[in-house]
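explain this.
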Amino acid sequence: MKFRKTMVAGTTIALAGVLAACGSNSASSNGKSITRMESDVISTMDPSTNTDVIGGQALIDTMDGLYRYSGKDLKPAIAKAEPKVTDGGKVYTFNLRNAKWSNGDPVTAQDFVFGWRRTVEPKTKSQYAYLFSGVKNADDITAGKKAPSTLGVQAVNKTTLKVTLEHPIPYFKTMLVNPAFFPQSQKFVEKAGKKYGTASKYLLSNGPYELKNWNGTGNTWKETKNKTYWNAKNVHIDTINGQVVKDSQTALNLYQSKKLDIATKISGQQAAQAKTMPDYRGLKQNGTFYLELNEKKDPIFKNAKIRQAISLSINRKEYIKKVLNDSSIPAANATPEGLFTKDGQDFAKEAAKNDGSATKYDPAKAKQLWTEGLKETGQSAPTLELLTDDTTSAKRSAEYLQSAFEQALPGFKVNISTVPFKTRLSRSQNGQFDMVFSGWNADFPDAISFLDLFTTDNAYNDGKWSNAQYDALIKQSKTTDATNPTARWNTLLKAQEILTKEQGVVPLYQRVETTLQRKTISNLKYNPTGSYDFVNATVK
């Protein structure tokens, strides 16, 4: 489900330190244990406040919601079966299976009620509260107009959960794999207080694994099989060792020395080398990377010609070939290919037929628009900062863009600021940037998972781009057109075309993640949300 602000390609701890952490034996020496890498530390394990793919994967590993993805198949999890849907698609009644928390307590309908109310409660400051829009009273609650207790979710009894929507939501069930919709034990959360989700001892699991040896900042952790999990009989890998690796060469070395069983996010020369290896897998992600331009901090970015000029100065094919050196795809718009289809049509490709010229490399046109934009704003060419992660490939990406901008756009001076992943997320959310390298992985397989981000008041609209027509179309897709697939498709296409024409964000690429995975690992499913499902996976 990854569904979270995703990491800008890459990552950096010293090789010697990683080798020491991993140990001297092969990661696969234990037949029921594997070691996989992550590109950075887990920021939080609070399902209400996590925003990135790293914590998202750990939450998927250790918790279950009403549904769970197994590859492309959406299957009931804590829900015992498909819900009863009534009132024209506005009421969902779920019967819950006999499931337990890792401390032995039962998972009840009230745990869902508490978790959902906690996420939409304004004081929680969940950036995913907007996903609840359409659940009865959710918008008024997040706006502080109504109490969380009025949210349209009810525990009919311990094993029956009733959800009331304000209008039908065609993608409602797919959203429920997001940790924001997971149950939470009120007793446990209130006892942990502000420490909830900050370390292993302040966590409670109801999923396949329990997170161990995690102190909130460390570069290593363990996920051990949760014996109380309702589907424990199908969890065949006893231990998943997590290891932060921030450099592609380090990842490749560790994999070749059998200290990693899964190595991901390999880029540059190492990606080219990895593609020649028999264990190579190219995982096409439902995620795109893009630049956000801070219109609130730098009013020059309110000018569409300035934003368009920046986009046209980027040779995306060359960037992928020279910097990423993997199988990633130039992004014509913010929505990735393969995410959303209808009657054999791909939404992203259809949108590109009308707006694709906005992301084509055209330095002459870029210079013209840049000059016109500066004249319209009455400003001289600016000196601005490009914010990105402190990883090897992220730095190389920033250097490529810096060169492209300064060559094509007269007088534009770009300074690069590289910071740790958590700092980049924090600065992005607080508006402390001029330009920032961002990315998003789908929360669920629908174009709205991306297009919603750039509405005027969305918590993830860090650049503060705003367009009233765009906002109206997104609202129309959720209300008037919600039960008419064709009308909804066309409305979302119009919205996508506005976003791309205006370059509300500057799309760069859709990642095809270079991954190395041992052939001893079988039946490990990769989900539409960019996460792994380790249930049913085996290792020899």
Remarks:
- The chain is about 30% helix and 20% strand.
- The chain has two domains: 33-242+518-539, 286-512.
- The radius of gyration is 23 Å.
- The longest strand covers residues 280-293.
